[in-house]
Give the backbone structure.
Amino acid sequence: MNITERLFNRLMVGVVVLGFLVLLAAGGTAGWMVARNQEFTALVNHTYDVEQSLSDLQISLERSETARRGFLLDQDLTFYTAYQTASGRMPGLMDRIGTLTADNPRQQKRVAEAKPLIRQTIALMNDSMPWCGRARWPGRISNSRPTRASKPSAPCAP
C-alpha cells in the first residue's frame, strides 16, 4: 500500500494535534490536582488550628489549677499572677474554638456544652482563692508572709 504524501501530512497533523490535546489535558489535570491539594491542605491546617486551640485551653486549665494550688500553699503572688493569666485566657480560647468549629454543628454543640463547664470551673477556682469570689481568709495572707504577699489590686479573672 502506497501512502500518498498528502495523506501522510494529514496523519502527521492529526497526531501532532492529538499530542497537544493530550498535553493540554495533562496540564489541566495537574492544575486541578494542585487546586485540590491546596483545598486539602487548608482543611488539614484548619484541623491543626482547632487541635492547637484545644491544647491551649487544656494547658491554661492545668496552669490555672497548678498556680491556684501553689498560691494556696505558698501565698506567693507569683502563683496568683500566673493563676490570673491562665484563667483569664480560657474564655477567649473557648470563643476561638467556637469560631473555628463554626462549620461543624456537632462540634458547636460540644463547645456550647463546654463553655458553662469552663465558666463553672473558673468560678470554683476563684471561690477558693483569697480576694476572689466569696472566699475570704482575713489576716491569713498578710500574717503568713508579709514580705512576699500583699493584697492584689485587680480581681481574679471572670
In short: Residues 133-155 have pLDDT under 50 and may be disordered. Helices lie at 5-74, 77-100, 105-127, 140-144. Residues 40-144 form one domain.
